Amino acid sequence: MLQGVCTAKQKDGTIYYRSSINYRNKHISLGSFSSEEEAGTAYLNALSLLGDASVTLSEVQDAALTLSFEKAVVLLNFRDNRLYFKNPIYLRNGYFSYFLSPYEELKFDVDDLFYYSSHKIQKRQGHLFVSDYGMQYSVLARYGIRPYAVAGRDYFFANDDPLDFRYSNIIIRNHFHGVRRIERNGIPKYEAVIHINGNYKIGTYSTEEKAAIAYNKAADLAKAAGISKAFPENYIDSYTPKEYADIYTKLKISRRYLNYLETLSV
What is the pTM for the complete model shown? Predict the structure, then answer.
């Protein structure tokens, strides 16, 4: 048997080959392979990466290795930074990179290192998420960005890099459902809109919290008019229950929207 290779059996009895290496008193699995030759080559790839400090991450991105790129990142980080992570993380100066593929490099602040070292990032239909306690959570949710938020409207990346998730790079414009920030004569205003067989403008308000409350009020009125749609509720924690109730009562709602609701009860 080649060095670093051992055999294993699947449940149906099929033989496959596992490769592993010891480095800095740690036993590291390199993966499973269909042939002894592939497993042995992966071991040699790992041995070369760990033994030659001149091999850089950028060189590995373009290299044709039997060893997976994800595992190569893990090994290079362990070699260069003396920290082992099971996920494809490479520590940089003041931040870290998480590689989804050789040319998909996500950037995060060091504050998130503990979380992403133990939670694997997955990508589906362009959406990034992690699995946690049996649930799927969007990467954007950690920044307070809601599932219905639209990039470029509700939030944007300061340096135009949608893979840079450092906190200073993510600018959130709209925090609440049905609320969008607009400007009038250079003054920010907040427009509330509800979708019922088309968009209906609820009104324009001085703060996004008031616009969010207006949306909640419009949703309550829709339910009272017999609309069974499940409207998401905005949660505003900057007001006491009494302050919320006072604002809710006094907020004016678009007459056009109210007229539309009245037609439903006729």
Answer: 0.76
